[in-house]
């Protein structure tokens, strides 16, 4: 079964750091055969608080999605965001 990474941002305090993170994170996503399904874009909040950004990435498997998160490449990218963005990050197994 496929695996999905779902990131719902609560706040972003530095757009430049987000751009720097995105460049490095994209390289890691590609290495682990991920495919962006949602990356920001227009949204409507029908329930709850509106998020400034939502990202959904599809991977060939749940394990591959977790391998991506734990990889050296992604963790280097992730360290760029520390202190500049608050988000909920989940790895979810598809149906």
The number of helical elements comes to: 3
| CATH architecture assignment | 2-Layer Sandwich
Helix content: 25-40%
**Average pLDDT:** 96
What's the CATH class, please? Alpha Beta
What is the domain tally?
1
Task: Tell me the major beta sheet.
Answer: 4 strands, antiparallel
Concise synopsis of the structure shown:
With 95 residues, this protein is of the alpha+beta class. The protein is 38% helix and 33% strand. Helix 1 packs antiparallel against helix 3 (72-81).
Q: How would you sum up this structure, described in words?
A:
By secondary structure, the protein is an alpha+beta fold. It has a single domain, classed as 2-Layer Sandwich (Alpha-Beta Plaits). Helices cover about 40% and strands about 35% of the residues. It has three helices and four strands; from the N terminus they run E-H-E-E-H-H-E. It has helices at about 15-30, 60-70, 70-80; strands at about 5-10, 35-40, 55-60, 85-95. A four-stranded antiparallel beta sheet has the order 2-3-1-4, covered by helices on one side. Helix 1 runs antiparallel to helix 3. The longest helix is centred in the N-terminal third of the chain and has 17 residues, at about 15-30. The radius of gyration is 13 Å and the shape is globular. The termini are close together. The model has no long low-confidence stretch (mean pLDDT about 95).
């Amino acid at each position: 079964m496929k695996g999905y990474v779902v990131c719902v941002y609560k706040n972003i305090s530095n757009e430049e750091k987000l751009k720097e993170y995105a460049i490095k994170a994209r390289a890691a996503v590609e290495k682990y055969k991920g495919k962006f399904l949602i990356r920001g874009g227009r949204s409507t909040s029908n329930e709850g608080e509106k998020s400034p950004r939502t990202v959904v990435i599809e991977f060939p498997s749940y394990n591959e999605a977790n391998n991506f998160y734990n990889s050296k490449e992604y963790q280097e990218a992730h360290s760029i965001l520390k202190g500049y963005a608050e988000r909920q990050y989940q790895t979810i197994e598809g149906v």
